[in-house]
Design brief:
This protein is of the alpha/beta class. It has 8 helices and 6 strands. Helix 6 (about 115-125) packs across helix 8 (about 225-245).
Length: about 250
């Protein structure tokens, strides 16, 4: 009995030591409810790529960019002439007979084709195409050039510095009536095209002429139709003149 008692006591004493020798089962790795902070979602602003602002083209800037580099300057005629010849075939006697009538016709012409009327009539045509010029800005001059200086002054008649520059000058507007040929209007033009490198113009001169059926209006009659015909024939004369210009090479004197 004593032996059994001692054995039991020994077993009781050794029990805890044996228990300590058994390695405890490792607890499973736990994931806490507090998750690690995630990367913030990109904001709407951060997803937009930065772009350089596109240049703003104003209407004024666009107009300047589109404006032709060439210029066409136009001067109207200052002189109107009327000449009627009867069966006498001209001369001093014929001139004296028709002097009063021609004076009245010059006055009617100057009214229908005053400087503003000439410029307006020309601008209603496609001047650049008819003259076969490069795209050009049209500049009009209300004051006619002195007829005596037109052929003498070879430099530019305006203060423009444009490198591509031309001048159209109306020099004479002439009404004629001949006993055998009837009435007509003749108009003389000069085209001067300047070379930027030399400053010397190429000069072309010509005349256009066409018949009249209504002008001049009779004394006391309304002049509306006669004036309209005069403007129309003036335009027709210019169109004819441009055809003559196209056949010329131009001179430098």
């Amino acid at each position: 009995m004593k032996f059994m008692y001692l054995l039991s006591a020994a077993l009781i004493t050794a029990g805890p030591a044996i228990a300590q020798e058994v390695a405890p089962t490792p607890a499973p790795e736990t994931v806490t409810s507090e998750a690690a902070p995630s990367a913030p979602a990109p904001s709407e602003a951060s997803t937009v790529q930065e772009t350089s602002p596109s240049p703003v083209v104003t209407a004024a800037a666009a107009a300047v960019a589109d404006e032709p580099k060439c210029e066409l300057h136009i001067w109207p005629a200052e002189r109107f002439q009327a000449m009627t010849t009867g069966w006498l075939g001209g001369g001093l006697l014929d001139a004296a007979i028709h002097a009063d009538g021609d004076k009245a016709r010059r006055s009617q012409m100057a009214s229908a084709l005053d400087p503003g009327g000439q410029l307006d009539a020309l601008q209603k045509l496609d001047l650049i195409a008819l003259l076969k010029l490069p795209a050009s800005k049209i500049v009009t001059h209300e004051e006619a050039l002195d007829r005596k200086t037109v052929n003498k002054i070879l430099t530019r008649r305006s203060d423009s510095k444009a490198s591509c520059y031309s001048e159209l000058i109306v020099t004479d507007v002439l009404y004629t009536k001949a006993a055998m040929w009837g009435r007509s209007l003749r108009t003389s033009f000069i085209l001067r095209q300047f070379d930027a490198s030399t400053g010397t113009p190429r000069i072309k001169k010509t005349t256009g002429g066409n018949g009249l059926k209504i002008f001049p209006a009779k004394k006391g009659e309304d002049t509306t139709e006669a004036d309209a015909e005069l403007v129309s024939i003036f335009q027709k004369n210019f169109t004819e003149a441009t055809e003559n210009f196209a056949k010329q090479t131009g001179s430098t004197s």
